[in-house]
Every structure is written in structure tokens, then in C-alpha cells.
Design goal:
Blueprint lengths: L4 H12 L5 E4 L10 E2 L2 E2 L1 E8 L2 E8 L6 H8 L9 H8 L17 E4 L6 E4 L6 E6 H7 L3 E3 L7
Parallel strand pairs: 5-6, 6-9
Antiparallel strand pairs: 1-8, 2-3, 4-5, 7-8
Length: 154
Amino acid sequence: MTEHPELARAAADAAERGLSVEFVARTGEGPPADGMLSGVPIAKTIVVQRREEFVFVIAPLAAQFSWPKLRALLGVNKLSLPDADGAFDATGYPRGAITPLGAHTPWPVILDASLAGQRIALGTGAHGFGAIVDADALARAYDAEFAELSATAK
């Protein structure tokens, strides 16, 4: 991990929070066609701007989350996605590798309710690697909440 300081930062943060993480090297470019990493579903982490702060939203890789549901949950009328530089400044990680693990600022975390009770693969802060975690343990470690964010669920 020493050649990837992002992994070391993510691992240190997880350890400090008592979160068990398995780091796995990925092969190929982009997400796997089956949406799995080492037999575990991949969850994407999106950093969303709410006023002057950011929020990590974690959802299944192929899922579309509902902006109206997210705005209602956060109690705001407007949310935005920062550009690549803004996302990096907010998290310390590049797009495509964003994760709450070891992020520069411990922004609030919201997980889609469909992830509850599952092992999931997250970004690690470094391209080419995934972090396999228990979603419930992740929620406890980051004082996160599960919320119904699916665009299709009512």
C-alpha cells in the first residue's frame, strides 16, 4: 500500500473507526460488466454539494437515485454535483475513486436502503482498487443513514 498513499489513508481511517476492509486490485478499465468485484456488488460513491458542505451518497452501481428524494431527505431545494476539481478538493480523491474512507473531510454519508445487509465494494481513493466492506458496518463506522433513494421506488 505504500506505493498508493490513498489506500494507506483509506485503511488508516477505516482502522481508526473499527471498520474491517478488504482491499482488492481491479483489472481492466472502468467498472466490470457484471457490476461485481470479487463476487461482491459494486456501489458507487457520489459526492453531492449541499449549500457549503458536501454529502457522500452511496448507491448500487447501476442504480439511478432520485434527486427529489435526496433533496427532501437533506431538507434542501437545490443540490449540485461539483466538477472534477471541486470533487477532488472536497474529498482528496479523483472522480471514479471517491470514497468516504480517508476523505479529507468526514462529510455526512447516506447509503441507499437497498445496500443494507450486504457486503459491497467501494472506491478506495485510488483507481484500480476496490474496498470490500459490510454496508451495515460502514453505516455504523461513519454514523451514516440508510434511505430509500431509488428513482423507481415510491
